[in-house]
From TrEMBL:
One CC-aspect GO term: mitochondrion
Organism the protein comes from: Aureobasidium pullulans
Basic and acidic residues biased stretches: 124-139
InterPro entries cross-referenced by the UniProt entry: aa-tRNA-synth_II, aa-tRNA-synth_II/BPL/LPL, Anticodon-bd, Anticodon-bd_dom_sf, Gly-tRNA_synthase/POLG2, GlyRS-like_core, tRNA-synt_gly
Aminoacyl-transfer RNA synthetases class-II family profile domain sequence ranges: 204-537
Single GO biological process annotation from the record: mitochondrial glycyl-tRNA aminoacylation
Localization terms from the record: Cytoplasm
Protein name per Swiss-Prot or TrEMBL: glycine--tRNA ligase
PROSITE patterns: AA_TRNA_LIGASE_II
EC number(s) from the headed UniProt entry: 6.1.1.14
Length: 661
């Protein structure tokens, strides 16, 4: 199947050929194949496992080391209460519709979105809109003309309504989506059957800790909660100084209703999440913002999206923060760091944009949110979410557990303040409240200043008052002045206490890897189309292909020496000693994305020189083993490019034929 999506060389992207390469070269496959496979679960073979490990290494260096973040490894099994407090138990759900005849489960918003988009596409074809766009491509023109024959033109008003519905889809409740399904006669596209009304399904995998069902738990749907609950440890580790950031790389689990699009929507995936804790006073400034202020990013803001356009604008982040397009410096700083990370791992930067969340997409507590989206053959795909989560997470966990999740700022000048304080007659309170006495004392101290003042006035006028105490069985307690009174007392404070705000960049590694593989894929069109994966030398799973020119035992000592030299520099390599032609060996290893080939030929036997081939240009240089290994070592560390090497080392013209035999 071809799509409108183009490779880095401007060729039509052939997804079937791409997927066949991934299968052939054992990049990935659906898990548990001998048992019929499970949707949404994938196993990675050696090349993809290695690619992931290289990308993670760069991520660690780019964020954890360079930004001095505190790396954490938190438990994946998470007690029910934690996710109840975070809101996941009640709200981490999607709506699904069932096809009653086939039993197929469809995610309601995807179903509506897909059907309306297909109708709009068909309408465009019927109006000939696409045909005009691609006039220069006769093959496509023919295909579109054919499609247009079966296309259905929509009424202008209907077309507008569909477009509006698609833009607002995130706003619909289950009931609302049910009405849309009826109104637009939306059916299961595969069977044509009517579907049942949407029902809400929580996306977490539930389990229990220990043998008793009294301790329900979930597999975590994100790594973030563990990081929030480690806040006090992190604060201690950073000597109480803010801002600081924690980072966690680990698996998350979501029981997606309709896993699809390969690695893009799966049920178990690797996340790399950062929680940057910052004092909300001072506008969430970032100490290193000035170093990135001039970097321009492709930003697709809310206003542009509302106008129906999807074209991002290149804006310097300094300007974007100044005009409040991006809410604050810390958020802006991270958008730039995400951009630089993507560039480092070899993402095609023409296929990257930052899309601002529409108001209706954001969580109620978030103050701004941008997704880093990568374009692949499935369309623009959110690969990193970067949100300002305000003080929400720490506040809710503090409230639920009574643990202090605050930071303190030492005041330059101590301040004297007056505040209402409960003065409890413990001799009377103890016998009266018995086992609840401590909980009641804590609750009285935790009351707001306003409430303390109000309670004192009530007790003075009415002789008694009622105080809510969630922690005791009765849920409330009656107090009077013989037991407690609230007094205004002077107090000198030397610090300010606050709940830090959190900026969270959240990376889905699988989606990034998949997009990176598509961005790296192209075909060399010489004698026959040959697939190439142009992984940059820094991320390539294997760095070097070692090829003796022919199967000849004479080469063995030189190969052994070369192996030792590559090993000494920790360069991963593969030896291809099969009897096929050198050109064929190169091209089948181009499919693995190996950036360099070192050939040992008969000249090497005389003078010890080897040839080094660059995968993308197929150009070669000839030099001593030491020079070649040094050049490779520098290139895989990103310290030198092929252009630098070509400028330094003599070219080798006796290029082997690239064609297969
Ligand atoms: N089912 C999934 N499969 C693979 N990666 C995922 C999946 N769900 C989320 N991610 C990745 O985790 C990142 C952070 O998760 P987040 O909760 O922000 O995603 P989300 O907004 O729920 O994604 P979506 O709207 O696509 O379901 C995403 O940017 C994405 O890269």
């Amino acid at each position: 199947m071809s799509t409108d999506y183009l490779t880095q060389k401007g060729q039509a992207f052939d997804r079937a050929a791409f997927e066949s390469l991934l299968r052939r070269k054992v990049f990935l496959w659906q898990s548990f194949e001998p048992y019929g496979s499970v949707k949404g679960l994938f196993d990675y073979g050696p090349p993809l496992e290695q690619l992931e490990s290289q990308v993670i290494q760069i991520w660690r260096d780019h964020f954890i080391r360079s930004e001095k973040m505190m790396a954490l490894k938190c438990s994946m099994l998470t007690p029910y209460e934690v996710l109840k407090t975070s809101g996941h138990v009640d709200r981490f759900a999607d709506y699904m519709c069932k096809d009653p005849k086939t039993g197929e489960i469809l995610r309601s918003d995807h179903l509506i979105g897909d059907v309306l988009e297909a109708r709009l596409k068909s309408d465009k074809e019927a109006r000939g809109e696409k045909i005009e766009e691609k006039e220069e491509d006769p093959k496509k023109k023919k295909k579109q003309a054919k499609a247009a024959k079966g296309a259905v033109k929509l009424d202008d008003a209907v077309r507008k309504e569909y477009e509006h519905t698609l833009a607002m889809l995130d706003d619909f409740t289950g009931e609302g989506m049910g009405e849309l399904i009826k109104k637009y006669d939306i059916r299961n596209p595969t069977s044509g059957n009517e579907v049942e009304p949407p029902v809400s399904v929580n996306l977490m995998f539930q389990t229990q800790i220990g043998a008793s069902s009294n301790s329900p738990a979930f597999l975590r749907p994100e790594t973030a909660q563990g990081q929030f609950l480690s806040f006090q440890k992190l604060l201690e580790y950073s000597d109480g100084q803010l801002p600081f950031a924690s980072a966690s790389i680990g698996y998350s689990f979501r029981n997606e209703l309709s896993p699809r699009a390969g690695l893009l929507r799966v049920r178990e995936f690797l996340m790399a999440e950062i929680e940057h804790f910052v004092d909300p006073e001072g506008g969430k400034a970032h100490p290193k913002f000035h170093t990135v202020a001039d970097v321009k990013l492709p930003l697709l803001n809310r206003k542009t999206q509302s106008s129906g356009s999807t074209k991002p604008e290149m804006v310097a982040i300094g300007e974007a923060v100044k005009t409040k397009l991006v809410d604050n410096e810390t958020l802006g700083y991270f958008l730039v760091r995400i951009y630089q990370f993507m560039e480092k791992i070899g993402i095609d930067m023409n296929k990257l944009r930052f899309r601002q969340h529409m108001e209706n997409e954001m969580a109620h507590y978030a103050s701004d949110c941008w997704d880093c989206e990568l374009l692949n053959s499935y369309g623009w795909t959110e690969c990193v979410g970067c949100a300002d989560r305000s003080a929400y997470d720490l506040s809710v966990h503090e409230k639920a557990t009574g643990t202090n999740l605050r930071a303190r700022e030492q005041l330059k000048n101590p301040q004297t303040i007056e505040e209402w304080v409960p003065v409890i007659d413990k001799k009377k309170a103890g016998p009266k409240f018995k086992k609840d006495a401590k909980a009641i004392e804590n609750a009285l101290e935790a009351l707001s200043q306003d409430l303390k003042e109000k309670l004192q006035i009530t007790m003075e006028s009415e002789g008694k008052a009622e105080v809510p105490v969630e922690e005791i069985a009765a849920g409330k307690v009656e107090i009077d002045l013989s037991i407690v009174k609230f007094e205004k007392q002077k107090k000198t404070i030397t610090f300010r206490e606050f709940v830090p705000n959190v900026i969270e960049p959240s990376f889905g590694i699988g989606r990034i890897l998949y997009s990176l593989m598509e961005h790296s894929y192209w075909t060399r069109e010489n004698d026959e189309a040959r697939s190439v994966l142009s992984f940059s030398p820094v991320v390539a799973p294997i760095k070097v292909l070692v090829c003796p020119l022919q199967k000849d035992p004479k080469f063995a000592p030189l190969i052994a020496k070369l192996e030792e030299a590559l090993d000494n520099k920790s360069i991963s390599f593969k030896i291809d000693q099969t009897g096929v032609s050198i050109g064929k060996r190169y091209s089948r290893n181009d499919e693995l994305g190996i950036p360099f080939g070192i050939t040992v030929d008969y000249e090497a036997l005389d003078d010890g020189t080897l040839t080094l081939r660059d995968r993308d240009s197929t150009k070669q240089v000839r030099a001593s083993q030491a020079d070649i290994v040094k050049a490779v070592s520098r290139m895989v560390k990103g310290k030198e490019t092929w252009a630098d090497v070509v400028a330094r080392l003599p070219a080798f013209e006796g290029q082997e034929k690239e064609t297969a035999e």
